[in-house]
Input
Amino acid sequence: MKSQAFQKVYTKLKNITKATVSLIAEDVGYDEMAVVNGRMAQVVKIVGDEVVLQVFSGTEGIPTNAEVTFLGNPPQIKVSDELSGRFFNAYGQPIDGGPEIEGEIREIGGPSVNPVRREQPSQLISTGIAGIDLNNSLVSGQKIPFFADSDQPYNQVMANVALRAKADKIILGGMGLSNDDYLFFKQVFDNAGALDRIVSFVNTTENPPVERLLVPDMALTAAEYFAVDKNESVLVLLTDMTLFADALSIVSNRMDQIPSKDSMPGSLYSDLARIYEKAVQFPSGGSITIVAVTTLSGGDITHAIPDNTGYITEGQLFLRRDTDIGKVIVDPFRSLSRLKQLVIGEQTREDHPQVMNAAVRLYADAANAKTKLDNGFDLTDYDERTLDFAKAYSEKLLAIDVNVDTDTMLDIGWELFGKYFSKAEVGIKKEMVDKYWNNN
Amino acid sequence: MEKNDNTTGTVSGIIANLVVVDVDGPVGQNEICFIAHGEESLMAEVIKVTGNQAYVQVFESTRGLKPGSKVDFRGHLLEVTLGPGMLSRNYDGLQNDLDKMEGVFLKRGDYTDPLNREKKWSFKPLASKGDEVVAGDWLGEVEENGMPHRIMVPFKLEETYTVKSLVKEGDYTVDDEIAVIESKDGETISVTMVQKWPVKVPIKAFQEKPRPFRLLETGVRCIDTLNPITEGGTGFIPGPFGTGKTVLQHAISKQAEADIVIIAACGERANEVVEIFKEFPELDDPRTGKKLIERTTIIANTSNMPVAAREASVYTAMTLGEYYRSMGLKVLLMADSTSRWAQALREMSNRLEELPGPDAFPMDLSAIISNFYSRAGYVHLKNEKSGSITFIGTVSPAGGNLKEPVTENTRKAARCFYGLSQDRADSKRYPAIDPIDSYSKYLEYPELQKSLEKNMGEHWLDNVIKAKDVLLSGKEANEQINILGDDGVPIDFHDKFWKAELIDFVVLQQDAFDDIDASTPLERQKYMLEKVLSIVDTEFEFKNFEQVGDFFKRLINQLKQMNYSEFQSDKFNGFEKELGEMLQEHAVEVKQEEAV
Ligand SMILES: Nc1ncnc2c1ncn2[C@@H]1O[C@H](COP(=O)(O)OP(=O)(O)OP(=O)(O)O)[C@@H](O)[C@H]1O
Ligand SMILES: [Mg+2]
Output
């Protein structure tokens, strides 16, 4: 995005704040990109003939006579098959030493899909992880984040999900990614021989935080190219959306907007929804599925970022360390896939819904028993059995290192029921019990 | 609006979707204008005027918009177009027909006609030449998807008119003149099947609005049995994310005994709307034998659609509801989620730099919510017929905390409270309506009590109250057990606790995804409540507390099998018989239940 010769160059800034500069300029459009002394900027406000620009990397060192040129367009990206296997920064410029991309220019953050043109998500995505496939099945066209404390191995789990998901393309949107994590993704994708299916847009901790705001739209515009123009199934990975939201609050703060809960901007819901709603199943067969990461602080999901996210996404996968088995599990209580009912029992075995529900209910009984134990009460025989069940369930099904197919997960479920409970205690529809109890 | 001259203006400032326009003439608050942007024309609404500057909120993205763009003011408020052909349509928040838009992606400035102008409707006159009529009176009717669609004297006419002419029975388009009416001063007005109405103004073409008095059957047991909503009543469903607000609303809209269902998807997920698009055309409406979609209108302003139009969407939905109510129909209106509407108000109020109220919401949030809820209701029309709008909105409290402004203000406005609890959702006790905290104020209405007694039998109310008491005492017993330990309390506490669990599992919990369990007709609800209460009334004998839980789990399992079976089928009766035998195991003396 270099400025072109015929463009007017302005050299007189009127105001400079921490995040913005303003100047008198003509014929400027809202959202338009500009360059201020070589730094990328975007129009965020126009009042009369005065234009306010947000400078992504901050205004430190910018003089009042800085050179300003307007690019005449909102942020954009060139799309073509050449994107595959490449790594870009938040502006869509290559960072892997490779050549510039040739392709069609597309505005990022473009319009929404007409809801009546959407298809209902319908294709099960298997990951081998029972905490996902058994309890929270993913469906193409879904949007779902991992909720995890920052010390959980969410990027590893996400990389596993991505590689097992059989997507035509994987698009990584990295925001505030540590350099180590960036190299981790590069390496796993490379080792899996999947690099040619992967496009990455990365803002690392070394880049200015506000630049992150462009990453999801870059990634999703590339995703739309593959899903719409090429009818491909595209999986978009966004990590870490908490750092994206933090960047939003930095901007709104610097622009003196009234903060709402947790000093987040009042528009946080709309800002996040605009991104997540890009997940879609197109009628032509292409799809965009979004798997994101929202890091929590101390498991607090009532904080504005996870809270708003939960209201937008189609469920969440909650990672938690289970100290009884010493492993990270997908917590069955706080995790949810809202699209699972579109596929379970239909694209999976008929007993799937009932096994899933019964196991979670028994796991809840175990949690009650645990509370009793912690409070120093005697446990009943049933309590003891639920505790044993819970441990086995956690170990054999919930742990993130499980990698089996869904039928096996269901068989394990029945095996555990049979081992620890009576039929009445499990409380599953009679037809299913008749068919699957002790059949394994 | 008292203003016809065509004011124009020029854009002079842009902050996201708030645009400042220098105007050359009079403008009205909430007047609609269009901003020219290249080939496109962007619709906007005036929300503030200072001097010769109008602040307008644009119903579209303002990307690329430049100062100097021309603005054309239209002299009217945000309106909907009312006429036959709105059922089974999918509209956006501004009533554009989404199906008429081309392409996969929404195009900015693409406004489509909500009605079909070519289609001919078979019109039957209901009035006669010489009749005196006022706004809202029925001149004739056409049939819309099997439902009578009344053609009314336009709502905005304020005087009494005489019908001068009325077309004969026959086929007409919505734009054909069907009647000419004349005012006292001899002014004649040509009436077609179409009229327009500003969405923020309630349609008041009725005689009176009595208190609601009749239960509206939803098929959801923990609503109908425990906390019923009435025809013309209001209710709200607050709950943290993922606790089942949308599933519950969809269940109600599929099953409730309404003539017309209007669903406003307000700032929520597009995939949830798609679910309705796909499901409703498949589902049978048990009362008409037609498909559910034929009595349904969807207003979809999903979360990725423009924020200003989100605010409008709930009003659009309500106005459509009022239109059908004026025809003497029973309308069920659903909005998911009203919190998104409140947030849209907040975004705009912040951009206008208004003094913020709690949590940065606008100061007048409470009044806005109350005004909106007050538009629902049961009405007697001027022709002695009646109609109703039953409104149920969801609320998405920030952080799941019910003390936040939207929940608190809605509580003041709505009469039924269906609070979803995180704990219940976590343990998959769906629908997760908290049985203790939730309420229906209508249960205290003598009007409703009387009609319940008539339709459900004289013991019904006592039974309902008893079920609530059992739930409460079960909760208390459980608390004691948790404090003192299983052994530390008399067995009686376990008995109490498990009797409450019995009601919970069998009456309250309901599987929205099971073909049979999903919807329970009132007759079956009555049968099952009496069945369960007869068990509650039975005195059991247990050796130790462990026996209590084991026994009740078996009872629950048995009763759940009944819930999953066709009512009074062989299967159902078989399970019931087994249940009877099971009961004998611990019954001291089975007080032969006269089902009280
Ligand atoms: N009655 C029910 N029976 C079975 N499952 C249910 C029921 N109600 C809710 N669920 C489960 O809970 C999930 C979330 O429900 P729903 O989408 O209605 O939540 P919500 O309260 O609308 O959440 P949000 O505020 O995020 O929109 C569903 O996808 C489903 O898996
Ligand atoms: Mg919902």
The longest strand of chain B covers residues 40-50. Chain B has a mean pLDDT of 94.
